[in-house]
Each structure stands twice: as structure tokens, then as C-alpha cells.
UniProtKB/TrEMBL annotation:
Belongs to the multi antimicrobial extrusion (MATE) (TC 2.A.66.1) family. MepA subfamily. This is Multidrug export protein MepA. GO terms for molecular function: antiporter activity; xenobiotic transmembrane transporter activity. It is found in: Cell membrane. It is a multi-pass membrane protein. PANTHER family: MULTIDRUG EXPORT PROTEIN MEPA (PTHR43823:SF3), SPORULATION PROTEIN YKVU (PTHR43823). The lineage of its organism: Bacteria, Bacillati, Bacillota, Clostridia, Lachnospirales.
Length: 459
């Protein structure tokens, strides 16, 4: 079967659009079903606000679990795209087989570990005596489906990196649509509340996993799921490349942990749960921006990796500029839209006046730096796709570390609500640092690749 997209020959502008748009749509719908989850939960009679706070506490733990799928899936797929660009199919198949084994092992180990540790994790992540019941119910059921979540996420990278962006989108849409349909059935129809939302999510992830496995075991995928030729060195290389995006996602969980803890501490018994509920709504809105933006920067990484492997550095440069331009256009539109749309978005979660006012204010504060954020996402993901993982990791950790420090310092010096300003301050600061660093290193990095022989690229 001919690939949907020829990463080494198709015109760059159209190629970026054909890979970015399906991934953006997939990310948007994926986030939409997460938001719908929270929308339904927030509207459960009598307990909606508390249940929403409980599920919000689960968010960073869910992100932490899924980050392991990114560790293996993105690390393995970037290397596989490079090897395909070199025309080294044997190495590409070895990366596929080693990655698949690693996904199986991680899924099994994490399921057991998180089921044993979930109570302690929920308390660390800001659960109160009132919200623990809802958080525990959701987390217990969700963790039981970790296997399917990791497999669907990790395997989808190997579909997209081979040029099948529409199939990759369909993998995500399968789960998203399933969850959107089942949510009201389980939450309200069967009167299962928070447990119903978690069950619908697990069923949806199972559907996505089956879709990805069926494609990668069929005849359409040039390199599908395979076995054998395992190598500890290869596995370590996969982890090394995937470690930067893994840390980016894993530290997101730490940031939410710090934020929830700070809001609970400085908000006190009277405002703590309210502030966490407001932050949950704000973070849900931010996902509508960061998710599609990640679709632009992450969904197009295969173009950069493939052409870097083929030593077509001019195509790499053109692609990076096209990706950045698309990111700037998207974030500019979202910045302007937010000024008008924030109150309407909040209304789908709550009609409680105090909570709604807090959430609208928080959304407008959080999005002050979204246009510079596009530089951070695109350039850091670009460096990762080109194998410059240490640089990418340092830039990401700079942003996350600054965010944590500001989240701790601002409420201590001012009020609990001041924590919301940490996001835009670091979006602007990190964008400036990342852009400067990228411009300093990219020329030399690409020249070195041009001078390398095929045998010198290694695994």
C-alpha cells in the first residue's frame, strides 16, 4: 500500500498540513472527550463541584501514566523514521519489535504499581477528606485500564511516523467518539456517577488500542508489530530519545501537584477546594490550546526525523519554519477567541457564580502568553525530532522549574490566586530562551549531519 504521505519527496508546505491537521483534529477530539467527562461530572446533582475537584486531582496522575507511552512510542518512532530515511529497514524493524516489548512491560508494571500506590498519590496530589472519595473511585477504575491506554498511545506514534496520519487520527477518534457516546449512558443513564465516567474512558481506550493493533498487524503498514532481535542497547537508545518528551509530560504532573497543594494551603478550608475546582476548569480550557498545538509540533516530527535521517537538511529547515508559522497562526487565533469565549466555556462546567467568576478570570490570565508558547512547543519538539534530546530536555526543564518556583513564590508573597500568573510569565520567558538557543545550535547540528556517512549514524 502506498503511504498517504511521502516524507522525503512531497512538497513541505502541503506535507506539514497533511500531517498536522489530522493530528490536531485527533488531539482536539481527544481533549474534547476529557472535557465532556468533566462537564458531565461537574453537573452531577448535589455533588458536581466536589466530584469535579476529585477528578481534577486525578488529572496529573493520568498524565504521569500516559507519559510512559510517550517515552517508548515517541522515542522509538523518531529513531524508526530516521532509519527509514536512511533506507535501513532492518534497523527500523528492530526498533519496532523492541518498542512493542517495552510497551507491554511498562503497561503491566505500571498497572500493578499504581493500584498499590494510588491512595498515597491522591493525597499527595491535593485530595482532601471531602474529595478523596471521588478521586479514589475514578483512579481505581482508570488504573485498571492502564494497559490499553499505554498501548494505544505508544503504538499510534508508529502509525503516524510511517506517513499514515489519517489512520493515526482514526485511532484517537475511535476512542474519543466511544467515550463521548458512553459518558451520559454510564454517568446518568445507569446512575454510576464518577465511576461511570471512568468505565467509559477505559472502554474507549480499549477500542483505540484494538484499532492500532489491527492496523499494525495488517498488510497496510510497511513495518508492523514484529518480534525478536531484542537488544538492551537498542532499548536504552529508545529511552534516551524519548526521555525528553517523557520528562516534559511527567513534570506536568509535578506542576499540577504543586499547584493543587499551593491552592489548598493558601486557600485554606474555605477556599482551597473552590480554587482547585477553578484550576481544573482552567486547565481543561488550556488543553484546547496545548493539545492541538502539540498536534502541530508533535504530529510533524516524522517529517523532520525522516529527512534528517536522509540528510536532506534543506527540507528540515523548510519544514521547521512551516511548522512554526502554523503554530503562531493557531495560538494567535486562540488568544483572540479566548477574550470572548471564556465565559461560555465555563458555563458548561458550572453555574455556581463564585466558581464561574474565578474560572473565567483564571482562563484569561493563563492564556496571556499562548502566542509565545508556540515557539516553545515547536522548537523544543523540533530539537527532539532531530535527536538533540539533551538540549530539548534542558529547555523544557527550564520552563517547568521556573513555573514551579513562581507557583510557590507568588502566593506566598501575594494571595493564593497569584499562582495563576506563573503560567504566562514562564510562557514568555521560556519562549525567548528556547528561540535563542535554537538559533544558536541548529545550523551547526544540521551541518554535522550533512558530513556524516550513512554507516556513521548508528542506532
Amino acid at each position: 500500500m502506498r503511504k498517504e504521505n511521502d516524507l522525503g519527496r512531497d512538497p513541505i508546505g502541503r506535507l506539514v498540513l497533511r500531517l498536522a491537521v489530522p493530528t490536531m483534529i485527533a488531539q482536539f477530539v481527544n481533549i474534547l472527550y476529557s472535557i465532556i467527562d468533566r462537564m458531565y461530572i461537574g453537573n452531577i446533582p448535589d455533588i458536581g463541584d466536589l466530584a469535579l475537584a476529585g477528578v481534577g486531582i486525578c488529572g496529573p496522575i493520568v498524565t504521569l501514566l500516559s507519559s510512559f507511552g510517550t517515552l517508548v512510542g515517541l522515542g522509538g518512532s523518531i529513531l524508526m523514521a530516521m532509519r527509514q530515511g536512511e533506507g535501513n529497514e532492518k534497523r527500523a524493524r528492530q526498533l519496532m519489535s523492541n518498542s512493542f516489548l517495552m510497551l507491554l512491560v511498562f503497561a503491566a508494571v505500571l498497572t500493578i504499581s499504581f493500584l498499590l500506590l494510588k491512595d498515597r498519590l491522591l493525597m499527595w496530589f491535593g485530595a482532601s477528606e471531602v474529595t478523596f472519595e471521588y478521586a479514589n473511585t475514578y483512579m481505581t477504575i482508570y488504573t485498571a485500564g492502564t494497559f490499553f491506554a499505554l498501548m494505544s498511545l505508544g503504538l499510534n506514534y508508529f502509525i503516524t511516523c510511517q506517513g499514515f496520519s489519517t489512520v493515526g487520527m482514526a485511532t484517537v477518534l475511535t476512542g474519543a467518539v466511544t467515550n463521548i457516546v458512553l459518558d451520559p449512558v454510564f454517568i446518568f443513564g445507569l446512575n454510576m456517577g464518577v465511576a461511570g465516567a471512568a468505565i467509559a474512558t477505559v472502554i474507549a481506550q480499549t477500542a483505540s488500542c484494538l484499532f492500532a493493533v489491527l492496523f499494525l498487524t495488517g498488510k497496510k503498514a510497511p513495518i508492523g508489530i514484529c518480534f525478536g532481535n531484542y537488544s538492551g542497547k537498542t532499548m536504552l537508545k529508545i529511552i534516551a530519545v524519548g526521555f525528553s518528551p517523557f520528562m516534559i509530560l511527567a513534570t506536568d504532573s509535578a506542576i499540577i501537584l504543586v499547584t493543587n497543594t499551593v491552592l489548598q494551603k493558601y486557600g485554606g478550608a474555605g477556599q482551597g477546594d473552590l480554587l482547585i475546582s477553578g484550576a481544573t476548569i482552567v486547565q481543561s480550557y488550556m488543553m484546547l490550546i496545548s493539545g492541538p498545538l502539540l498536534g502541530i509540533s508533535g504530529g510533524t516530527q516524522a517529517i523532520l526525523s525522516y529527512n534528517y535521517g536522509a540528510r536532506q537538511t534543506e527540507r528540515v529547515k523548510k519544514a521547521e519554519w512551516s511548522i512554526l508559522r502554523m503554530g503562531i497562526i493557531f495560538t494567535t487565533i486562540m488568544f483572540l477567541l479566548t477574550r470572548v469565549a471564556a465565559p461560555y466555556f465555563v458555563m458548561i462546567f458550572t453555574r455556581q457564580e463564585e466558581l464561574a467568576g474565578l474560572a473565567v478570570w483564571g482562563i484569561r490570565v493563563f492564556t496571556l502568553g499562548v502566542i509565545p508558547m508556540s515557539f516553545q512547543y515547536v522548537l523544543v519538539d523540533g530539537l527532539t525530532a532531530l535527536g538533540r534530546t539533551k538540549t530539548a530536555l534542558c529547555l523544557s526543564l527550564f520552563r517547568k522549574t521556573g513555573y514551579v518556583l513562581l507557583t510557590l513564590a507568588l502566593p506566598a508573597a501575594l494571595t493564593a490566586k497569584a499562582a495563576f500568573y506563573a503560567e504566562p510569565i514562564m510562557d514568555v520567558t521560556a519562549a525567548a530562551v528556547s528561540t535563542t538557543t535554537f538559533l544558536l545550535v541548529i545550523g551547526r547540528h544540521l551541518r554535522q549531519r550533512e558530513q556524516e556517512g550513512v554507516t556513521g549514524s548508528g542506532l
